[in-house]
């Protein structure tokens, strides 16, 4: 059975809003919310989102939290690929990077795994957006809940998160 994706324009401050959509609304940024029925048995949150929305996986970006030299850092990369930890460390002037403890990532961002958004985090973390995002007019990232994505321009995402754009993803 195909999953349905609902699109809502700028639904941030209303019912169902998340800190991410509230932040987008407050910033006056154009965005679209896509919601779909999350399947807990699906092996990949990002691939599930791309399939449910009917969007190419290279336009759907996952939000990962890594530890770079003792400092938590957000990496936003296409779900079709993987995060290159060495490239992430280099992008922020660090030496070593490793994936952060999931419980620490959840506590720090205020979001649950599979629903971590680069926007509206409890504690603002430095952010690196894979430069492949520039190839698209819009990209999708988590809106702060499993089954909820937000589509916006990569330029707006980079500006709102003060992200560095760098080649941190790999196929």
Structure description:
Strands 6-3-4-7-10 form a five-stranded mixed β-sheet. Strands 1-2-9-8 form a four-stranded antiparallel β-sheet. A two-stranded antiparallel ribbon has the order 5-11. 24% of the residues lie in helices and 30% in strands. It is of the alpha+beta class and 171 residues long. The relative contact order is 0.22.
In angstroms, what is the radius of gyration?
15 Å
Question: Biggest sheet: strands, sense, closure?
Answer: 5 strands, mixed
Please tell me what the overall shape is. globular
- Into which percentage range does the β-strand content fall? 25-35%
User: What is the number of helices?
Assistant: 5
Helix percentage: 10-25%
* Poorly predicted ranges: 1-15
Amino-to-carboxy terminus distance: 29 Å
- How many strands appear in the DSSP assignment? 11
What is the chain-wise order of helices and strands?
EHEHEEEHEHEEEHEE
**Mean pLDDT over the residues:** 90
Helices and strands, with pairings:
Blueprint: E1 6-9, H1 19-27, E2 32-35, H2 45-53, E3 61-68, E4 71-78, E5 82-83, H3 85-91, E6 97-99, H4 102-109, E7 126-130, E8 139-145, E9 148-152, H5 154-161, E10 164-166, E11 169-170
Parallel strand pairs: 4-7, 7-10
Antiparallel strand pairs: 1-2, 2-9, 3-4, 3-6, 5-11, 8-9
